[in-house]
Write a structure and sequence with these properties.
The protein is α/β, with parallel strands linked by helices and about 350 residues long. Helix content is about 30%, strand content about 15%. The relative contact order is 0.15.
Length: about 350
């Protein structure tokens, strides 16, 4: 029987276990350069016993930023700063992928320079608020991307992926979840387009697929993962006919030979099992455990074949040595969700499982 503590070959990259550290935004890239600090290097090095670390969301372009003090991978200074982080992880024997996260319409002009505003598939404001230096503020109506700007955004993902490899990351995870730009293209309420980038199911999945194609061509499919969260309403997302929409998405991604698909699960386990059966490559599951953080029970999902690997979020913040504690059955320091917002030793997290 395969267990979560058995090794896994991730498209040729050897992982020491099937325990994955889920991406969680930390908001520690202070200052105008949006570059990670020495605290970032320490934070990830402390958690290098994970089979795989997926980094916090990293914006691929200036306009892709939606929260304060989040890091980018679009400048030489950022590449140099991330290299210190990846070196620290590799010195501890860890493997780390960079999550590329364009927030799309989730953001605020006060977070962007030179009068920029957030961009999206359509000029529809998200009915939600975001953190800014002035506190919580409502999202504004974004600029609708033109076809040429869509192509440029794809190119931005490619450039960031190349920068990730230059910075020493073992690969990248394309963030297609949690109500950010790629999921906005998938949605019914954020994507009102009638051109080839919207309307039909094939139109809605096209942006995410084209990003994945372009990134795999640039850095190799074995360096690329893709995260999804079917039906996740976070950031004012509405999606319909999830089995068809995400079935078609995985069908289109399958020929690319990606390193993995990483599913952030909702309450529908049947959908998870359908997508798991459909995806022939490595499948990583962040199971639905709301309102509790993912814990010991999730290990059985590897044993029964529901997933190849399982990702943990909140417990990795409060337990840097989480794989050892999981193997021993605990004890676990309890994460405190009330401390997950803000800067310094705190940060933002994903919807609602906090991992």
């Amino acid at each position: 029987m395969t267990t979560a503590f058995d090794p896994l070959s991730l498209a040729g990259v050897p992982l020491n276990s099937r325990i994955v550290m889920s991406p969680m935004t930390r908001s520690r890239a202070y200052g105008p350069g949006q570059a990670p600090t020495e605290a970032t290097a320490l934070y990830y090095a402390q958690r290098a016993t994970a089979g795989l670390i997926v980094s916090e969301g990293i914006q691929p372009s200036v306009v892709g930023q939606g929260y304060p003090s989040t890091p980018g991978l679009h400048s030489d200074a950022q590449v140099d700063a991330w290299r210190r982080v990846t070196d620290a992880v590799h010195e501890k024997g860890g493997v780390i992928f960079a999550q590329l996260m364009h927030t799309g319409r989730i953001g605020h002009p006060s977070l962007l320079p030179d009068g920029l505003i957030s961009v999206a598939p359509s000029a529809v404001a998200a009915d939600t608020k975001v953190f800014t230096a002035e506190g919580l503020q409502s999202c504004v109506t974004p600029k609708e991307l033109t076809p040429a700007e869509i192509e440029q955004t794809i190119a931005d993902f490619v450039s960031a992926a190349r920068n990730a490899i230059a910075a020493g990351f073992d690969g990248v995870e394309i963030h297609g979840a949690n109500g950010y730009l790629i999921q906005q293209f998938l949605s019914d309420n954020a994507n009102l387009r009638t051109d080839e980038w919207g309307g039909t199911t094939q139109g809605r999945i096209r942006f995410g697929v084209e990003v994945a194609k372009a990134v795999t061509e640039a850095i190799g499919s074995h360096h690329v993962g893709f995260r999804i969260s079917p039906g996740n309403p976070f950031n004012d997302i509405v999606e319909s006919d999830l089995p068809v929409l995400y079935g078609e998405l995985l069908t289109a991604l399958s020929p690319l030979g990606l390193a993995y698909v990483h599913l952030m699960e909702g309450p529908d386990r049947e959908l998870t099992l359908q997508l798991r059966k459909q995806w022939q490559g490595t499948f990583i599951l962040n199971p639905f455990t709301h309102p509790n953080p993912t814990g010991l029970d999730a290990l059985s999902l590897v044993e029964d074949g529901t997933t190849d690997a399982v990702s943990f979020g909140a417990l990795f913040i409060s337990n840097p040595d989480l794989p050892r504690r999981l193997q021993q059955g605990g004890p676990f320091a309890t994460p405190d969700p009330t401390t997950f917002y803000g800067g310094d030793e705190r940060g933002y997290t994903d919807y609602p499982t906090l991992d």
